Structure formats: structure tokens, C-alpha cells
Amino acid sequence: MSGDRASGYVTEIEYTGGFYPELGPVRLGFAAQAAGLGSPDPGLPFTYLELGCGQGRSTALHAASLPHGRFFAADLNPAHIRNARALSESAGLANVTWLERSFAELLDEDLPDLDFITLQGVYSWISAENRRHVAELVRRRLKPGGLVYLSYNALPGWTAAAPLRRLMADHASLGTGPLEGRIRDAVGFAGALRDAGARYFERNPAAASRLDQIAEKSPAYLAHEYFNRDWTLFYFADVAAEMAEAGLGFAGSAHLMDRVEALTIPAAARPALAGIHDPTFRETAKDFITGQPFRRDVFVRPGARPAPDPVLALVTPREACPGRVAVPAGDFRMEGAVHGTVLDTLAGEPQPLSSLLALPALAERGHGLGLEAVMTLVGLDLIGPALPRAGLPGRLASTRRFNAAMLDRQRAGLESSVHLASPVLGSGVEVNLLEGLTLSAWRDGAGDPARFVWNVLAGRGQRLVKDGRTLESEAGNLTEIAERIEAFAAGRLLVLSQLGVAE
């Protein structure tokens, strides 16, 4: 479906733009520290490379929020690199180098030694030869104590739906014309088989459900997720073995909820895990219990690195933090005297982990249970890893430029929801269309923010929906917009201000 240089990877359709927080140096450092390992300190100068960066959103945002880092990002699609450079220029980023390179070509690139190397999803979509190029690049360039982030489609979670992908890919390969049309035809063909009562779908309801999800996605997304020539599903043990050949050891998941078994493993299954001491087989068993279809793993090269005292910040408004949460393991109830104490403390300002563990409510539980309570809140995305205050002014200047560029894109109709850069988190925070337009109104000094938002929406022919009903009148929309702005100002804006996203 593409040229020899691309090695079967789709290049004729651009991939969708997206932000992935797991790629961030602060989160990756925290993931290693949570495993008791040293890591590169993202508060100090570092070097970073993203392989297969797509439209470059994640690298650009992290570069804006961490201007003291030196970032490199590579993709073989010329359109992706053009778009990434344009975003970088509009945001005034001077610490990113965009490289239009294949993995093989990067082996000869004049790169510095690296603290972080990241790949989002692409490991499942490249050939065995290109995976060897990745391993060789890691061997040559990753510093001792450096981290690699690797996400990929995993077994056994993908087992039931894998034949569906093969069916669609084979159908598309037999067609003619542009890939976008062949993708639509392939999805339609699979749907016709399901509707005709094909037993595969009857016996694999997960595949039927996935097909419904696929039908709602754009061809730009599907082309890269399902229609590359190479498409490999991995057991964790096999990826760990490939990384071990490159000199790396497993440091844990960058999806921080996975670090807390009370959130992900049903109580009835925990005794089975208790007797497993081999870390690789333990991960395999966990994947069988959870049906994990997509892993987000962190690997580390052995080497002496200090373990900084990580900082944590509130990322959900305190009043919006629930007392009870539905999680993969079942129903999780917060303990007010423990979890509530941490949330109340962080509602004031970010705190080092050591300070949280010293709170009487946590200290009396012992280090292990106290740390588990903090990690639970991290896993639920109520709090998150952050940066020390040192260097904040420089980070704030950089994120202001980036966020202004993203809000301008949103106002121009190029984006709906956008991720803005936080100089406190060193990562991104999502704001929806109304929130973003409100921030633009305040930035521009609009006397009537509701009118500002309405003028933008009306110019696009958009209307708000309330209680399942579209508001058609201008007066009705203005009233609803004003109410939502008031709720935003009284709630989430307070957290955004604390995180340096809004001023």
C-alpha cells in the first residue's frame, strides 16, 4: 500500500493528530520512580526522540511545556513533518528538530545520546526488520538509565478481533483506486457478512462490537490502525525479550492505572497472582485476567540514576472528585480520611510525594499502603505527576505561546477539543470547544464572553444541545453559553489556573 522506503507502512493518507500523555518525560520518569527505579530528571536538561511522530502533537506540546529539553521527532511521511513544522513555527518552538526519516535512515543520523525514546502504537505496524532497526537505535543512542516507551496491540486481548482486521485488509488489497475508498468498501463488506449472520461474528461478539466502532472512524484513522502491510500482535513476554536483546529491562506501565491492581484486577483473581514471582509471567497472567488489548510499557537501560522526589498536582477540580468510581476491577470506594486528605492537600498547591506520604493519615498506614493510596488517585486521573517550581517562569512563557497557537486553531475551526500545555505538569490538559473559546474571549479582552463564543459558533452554523434538544434561537444559545461559562469559571478554571494553563 506504499513505497519501498516505507516498508509497507501507509503513507498516502495522513494520520489523525492526537496527544498521548504517556509519551511525556514527566510521566515516564514518574512511572520509573513508582517502580523504585532511578530515571532521567525531566526538570533538568534532557534529550528526547519520538519515532513515528505522526502529526507531531505530542512532541510539540511536551517541547512547549519542557523548553529546557532538546526534542527530536521522526516520521517518514513528508506531510506529517510539514504539518509538525508549521505547528512548531506558529507556537514559537525552538527546541524541536523534525526529521523526515525512516527507521533505517535514523541509524545514520547525527543524533545525540538520548534520555528518552518513545514509540506510540507504531511497533505493531512495522516489519520485523524495522523493529530490529529500532532495537539497534536504542542500543546505540539510549543513555544508561534512559527510558524507552513502547505501546503496541497486545495478546490475548486482540484474539477475537484479529481475524476481522485480516478480512478487511485482504479485501482492501484486492481493490483498485484510492486507499480511502478501498477502506470504506472493506468495512462495508465486513458489515455485510455480519448482517448476513456470519458465524464468526456470532461466536465472537467482541469482533461485532469492534466493527461498530470501526464504522464510526475516519479512513485516516483506520488506514494506519488496520491497513498497514505489517500488523503484529504481541504477547508481553515477546516484546520484553526483544527489548532485553537491546539491553533494556521492564520498568512498568505508563498507563498509571495499570500500576494499581486494586483498580484493575478483580478481587477473585488476585490470589492467583500472589504466587507468581517471575515479573514477566506475572504481566502475562495480568493480561489474561484483564483481556488487555493495548499495552503501554516503559523499559529502562541499567545505569546509576538518582530517583528524584516526584511532585504531584491536582488535575480534577476537588469538588468534582467522586467518592465512588467504576473501575475495571469493579466498584472502588474512596476513603475520605486517606484519599480525601491527599486531595484536600493538593487543592492548595502541588506537593512532593514525600510530603504526601508524611501526612498523618498516610504515615500511620505505613509506606507501602500510603504509596498505594497516592497511586490510586494518580491511576484515576484525579492527581498527576508534575514538576518542581524551579524553572516555572521559562516554562510559562513557552506554554503561553503554544497555547495561543492552539486556541487560534480551535477558533478558526481547525480543531474541536484541544490539548493545552501545562508548565506545572509538563504535559497536556484537554479543553473542549466552549472552554477553549471562553479562554480565547478572556485572552482577547472580550467584554461579553458569551457573545464572543456565540459569534464563533453561529458563524459555523453550530448550536448548543441541552437535555437532548438543539437550541435554535440566539437568545437560548446565549443564555446556555453564559451558564456554562459561569460553571466553568467556578469549577474547572480554578484547576486550569493552578496548572498554568489559564491566567
TrEMBL record:
Keywords: Methyltransferase, Transferase. Residues 219-301 form the Methyltransferase regulatory domain. Residues 49-146 form the Methyltransferase domain. It comes from the Bacteria. It holds the Pfam family MethyTransf_Reg. GO terms for molecular function: methyltransferase activity. This is Class I SAM-dependent methyltransferase.
